[in-house]
Amino acid sequence: MKGIILAGGSGTRLGPLTVSTSKQLLPVYDKPMVYYPLSVLMLAGIREILIITTPKDQSRFQELLGDGSQYGISISYAEQAEPRGLAEAFLIGRDFVGDDRVTLILGDNLFYGHGLTDTLRSAVAEPGPGATIFAYHVNKPQRYGVVTMDKSGRAVEIEEKPENPKSNRAVTGLYIYDNSVLDIAREIRPSSRGELEITDVNRTYLERGELKVIELGRGIAWLDTGTCQALLEASEFVRSLQRRQGLQIACLEEIAFLNRWISRSALEQVETRFRNSEYGRYIGQLLRRNRP
Q1: 266 and 171 inside one domain
Q2: DSSP-derived 3-state class of residue 219
Q3: Residue 53 near residue 5, CB atoms below 8 Å
Q4: Is the domain of 269 the same as that of 256?
Q5: Residue 240 gets which letter from DSSP?
Q6: Domain that residue 266 falls in
Q7: Mean of pLDDT values over 231-258
Q8: pTM here?
Q9: Cα-flanking dihedrals φ and ψ of residue 12, to 5°?
Q10: Distance separating alpha carbons of residues 111 and 224, to the nearest angstrom
Q11: What is the distance between the alpha carbons of residues 20 and 57, in angstroms, rounded to a whole number?
Q12: Do both 9 and 35 map to the same domain?
């Protein structure tokens, strides 16, 4: 299984914050935004990851994350010259994916909650053809792709930002596909917005009878950070939980260490590097909790 983080786009809804930097490099409380989708892929057990950025921002992502070896993973990079739709990720990442299955996550999405890791790993490990999408109950489904399901939990329709949605189940920015997504994406035609829509990809799987929907329950939070209000709310969410629990959300080194992808000595180096921040102090606590 390969993983792709789509971190392109111009972030115009966040202007002027995004005039000189990528949206996905903005802070969500104490970490860059891209840490959160990257943590989801790592929690799912995915270790080969492609980050798609704008040409001007790619060097900044490389400076932040490098080749991923400090997390026990492999990170490579590709460019999306212009925001031509989510499905373009599979055209850009075709060689990276190769013959594998692939999980796509949007660079401005945050997932957190009880049982999330088990849900992710189970979905990634499931064999067979087809696609898996994750649905979440929202108050204003008009803003999202919306999936309608029958009484048995089978998807029967997907609409992109409908004026009169038939359900409150939004399709989140996390998708798992078999290898045929590469060919499906290549056949998709641009929408009226001039973009290759991920909804058209999902609709193709639906028409084939190969689309599975996993509903994320009340115990899991899904936040996107595409507006200033949403960015602030996400930061407040992370701050509140971390201060209450004393546990970090999306601490990449912690995930890597607990997955046994990096050594204790590597974690000690992180503690030294960030020793003046709460993040570094948390790493120190993690080391003390996991003494050999």
Answers
A1: no
A2: coil
A3: no
A4: no
A5: H
A6: 262-292
A7: 97
A8: 0.96
A9: -65, -30
A10: 9
A11: 9
A12: yes
For residue range 76-130, list pLDDT tens digits in order.
999 999 889 999 999 999 999 999 999 999 999 999 999 999 999 999 998 889 9
Domain count, the chain: 2
> Same domain, yes or no, for 42 and 155?
yes
Task: Give yes or no: residues 36 and 62 share one domain.
Answer: yes
Same domain, 213 and 153: yes
Count CA atoms closer than 13 A to 51's CA, side-chain side: 32
- Which residues are 27's β-sheet partners? 32
Q: Determine the longest span between alpha carbons in the chain, in angstroms.
A: 59
Which residues contact residue 22 at a Cβ distance below 8 angstroms, ignoring those fewer than 6 apart?
7, 11, 53, 54, 57, 60, 61
Same domain, residue pair 68 and 180: yes
pLDDT at 151: 85
Q: Going by DSSP bridges, is the β-strand pair 2-7/48-53 parallel, antiparallel, or unpaired? A: parallel
190: which DSSP letter? P
Tokens encoding 177: 């596909």
Residues written for the chain: 292
| Predicted local distance difference test score (pLDDT) of residue 11 | 84
